[in-house]
Amino acid sequence: MAKAKLQTLRGMYDLLPETSAHADHLIATFKRVVEAAGYGRIETPILEDTSLFVRGVGNETDVVAKELYSFTDRSDNSVSLRPEGTAGIVRAYIEHGMVSLPQPVRLYSVGPYFRYDRPQAGRQRQFNQLSVEIFGEVAPSVDAQAIILAERYFRQLGLDGVTLQLNSIGDANCRPAYRKALVEYLSENSSKLAEIDRERIKTNPLRVLDSKEAKTKAVLAHVPQTLNYLCADCQKHFAGVLEYLDALEVAYELNPLMVRGLDYYNRTVFEFYGQREGAQASLGGGGRYDTLVETLGGTPTPAFGFGIGLERLLLEAEAAGSLPQPDTGKSVYIVSIGEPARMASFKLIEELLNANIAATGSVDRDSIGGQLARASKLGVPYAVIMGQKEVQEGTVLLRDMSNTAQESLPLNGVIKELSKRFS
Ligand code: HAM
Asked: Please, how many CA atoms are within 13 Å of residue 138, restricted to the half-sphere of its CB?
């Protein structure tokens, strides 16, 4: 019987060299932008106690109720692959007593998350996020600074077409009145709602607001809006956020139906959208979560954060043509011809690498034509050619790949010459 072919699980993928170079560029730019703004890196475990996500993200959210990868470990504990990063970072903030550090505490993180979602372009079951969290500051300037940080990041990547949508969903003070009005409206119109949204009226009515169901969308045209139910403090806070964004002329659109899919948010919520045709939902999003630290057992601490999907960002940057070509400007390819050059070229590659000069080459194969074609394909500026004559004379041929000019150099001077040309 034929053995089943082994392959990646559905919704998971291998990061191959060409794409990983692009991903590294997005990550390096992210680190530069956030570190300049005073964020320090935190990485929490991928596997956590399932109760962290149930308590932190919410039992009725899709990511916990439907998409969590959970299993019982060998000690009978229920553990889960993290579906998002905020709950774990809040746990770490509490566990390491970060509340006693000077506030605000600014953290960033880069890593994989897992959701048993329906895979499609831009939606995987394992995906990566670039995220930031800020603890200990309730002022609206923090919300605006974080949003502007994300904007700056997109701009530095050359993505000028990213748009921002904002909303405020109130807090524990004003949410109940809004929720009541929403439930009333949805109940009155329940026969016109999609089945799944009819169920949500009881479990998580706010989630009906960002329903993708056509039937529901028609009902939402006249739904009560969170912004009309904000208490005075929430109103003032949101006005403050908008004032800061306006001061820096950050463009945004108010989206009264945006609630986000995770339960911990209050007040400001936002999402970024790319320009890619058929883009799978948002490039990134986040908001304020002033009660999560307390919910997970810590001292009440206001907080704000966002996450950007690395895979969606890659698709966006690719479509915008803003990914850099690999830099081969300072590397060399060693072409070796025949048995006499085999050992000499083998040694030269290692000596170049020891001198921190990027070098590759074929030691004992291929024709000279094949080797030069390979050098050309790699885009290296120079090839070093070693044949029988060169080995006997203790020389090499240095070939300028841009114009094919070749010059003879002593073998023991080639490292110095290349260092000079690359400096
Ligand atoms: P989220 O909106 O669930 O927020 O995810 C953030 C981003 O991760 C999304 O905008 C999207 O780009 C990406 N993403 C989510 N699910 C998938 C998927 N299945 N495949 C590919 N990309 C995906 C959070 O997770 C919050 N923890 C963000 C946050 C941080 N809020 C406050 N602090």
From this structure: 12
273, containing H or E segment:
strand 266-273
Residue nearest ligand 1's atom 30 by CA? 306
User: Is residue 58 in contact with ligand 1, taking CB distance under 6 Å?
Assistant: no
* Contact residues for 359 (Cβ-Cβ < 8 A; gap 6+): 331, 332, 333, 334, 348, 349, 352, 353
Mean pLDDT of 303-308: 98
| Alpha-carbon distance values, 376 to 346, 353, 363, 396 (Å) | 20, 20, 17, 18
Residue-averaged pLDDT of the chain: 94
Check pocket membership of 200 for ligand 1, CB cut-off 6 A: no
pLDDT tens digits for range 98-156? 999 999 999 999 999 999 999 998 999 999 999 999 999 999 999 999 999 999 999 99
Q: Which residue has the tokens 């206001």?
A: 302
Closest ligand 1 atom number to CA of residue 271: 10
Q: Which residue in this structure is represented by tokens 């929430």?
A: 234
Task: Please give the angle made by the CA atoms of 328, 391 and 397, to the nearest 5 degrees.
Answer: 40
**Is the shortest distance between the CB of 85 and ligand 1 below 6 Å?**
yes
List, for residues 184-223, the tens digit of each pLDDT value.
Answer: 999 999 999 999 899 989 888 988 998 888 899 999 999 9
Which secondary structure element, helix H or strand E, spans residue 420, and what is its range? Answer: helix 414-422
Q: Report how far ligand 1's centroid is from the alpha carbon of 202 (Å).
A: 25
Choose the residue to mutate in 81, 84, 207, 266 for probing ligand 1, maximizing ligand atoms within 8 Å of C-beta. Answer: 84
**Per-residue model confidence as pLDDT tens digits over 312-325:** 999 999 999 999 88
Q: Which domains does the chain show, CATH number per domain? A: 17-170+230-320 (3.30.930.10), 175-226 (no CATH), 331-422 (3.40.50.800)
Which of 39, 64, 125, 127, when mutated, tests ligand 1's pocket best, judged by the most ligand atoms within 8 Å of its CB? 127
Each residue of 348-364: b (16+ CB within 10 Å) or e? bbeebeeeebebebbee
Beta carbons of 16 and 143 less than 8 angstroms apart: no
